[in-house]
Amino acid sequence: MRIISANLQHGTPAKGVEPSQDCWHDLAKQFASYQADAICLQEVDFYQLHTGFSNQTRALAHALSQETGTTWHYRFLGFFAGQVVLGVRLPVALPKSVKTNLFNPFRADRPLVGGYGLGILTPHPVRRWVSAKLGAAPPRITINGWDMRNWSFYGGQTRNLLGAEVLTKQGSFLLGCTHLELGSVTAANQLGRSWQGLCALAGSATPVLAGDFNLRNDAVRDIFPYLTIADALTYPANQPSFQIDHVLAPPHCQVVSAENIKMPISDHRALFVDLNP
Length: 277
Hints:
Layout (H helix, E strand, L loop, with lengths): L1 E6 L15 H10 L5 E9 L9 H13 L4 E9 L33 E8 L3 E10 L4 E3 L9 E3 L4 E10 L2 E9 L4 H19 L3 E7 L4 H7 L4 E2 L15 E5 L4 E8 L8 E7 L1
Parallel strand pairs: 1-2, 9-10
Antiparallel strand pairs: 1-14, 2-4, 3-4, 5-8, 6-7, 8-9, 10-12, 11-12, 13-14
């Protein structure tokens, strides 16, 4: 299975790159050359004011469909509902919990007031979509001196897991996509819950977890020394010096190749991994 994991930073042009009139077409052309079976996205906007009220997951899926001549299926899942520039971040309800109300304004996969979070795209059939909440970091305060105006408060964002059971010629894969907390302790706990939950739901499918873990390679290996982990430096984009974007797979899977992709957008490089199940 060929997977791309990409933190898009809301489509922000990469450092030193001139803004493009259609960054999604440029990105689709770049990603299409890797013939990926699935693409996992982090930091994607859903009708946010500061990015032109665009559904960025859908925009990239449509660009990929045009570039490849194949329909790409996609799903967005938000961490919260609301507008970032207004400081409005409201809790969302996972799709499975709101089946009786398709027009719930706080539904995580299509919040009517806008959202921000994750996306999965694939040109293959999807048997099912799954999602789970991973919780948030406890509130914390950074104190800089005696002047309270220099103190900063961080409430912690609720993080989610989005999954798709993708049917390929190599078999079925339950692919999970997530973006973990900045705090390493919380991120490690969320990573454990993500992998355990994915394995519990996988059934006969092969579980694979991808995303921005906000954990370096050594930390991930300490948590899961027995898993197959792809290695490639991904951050910062201009001169990558460490890896926080990862793809995890069961021990029987082998990494055929792994490399980073310098995108026209974002402060991350995307991670491409070719897995042999």
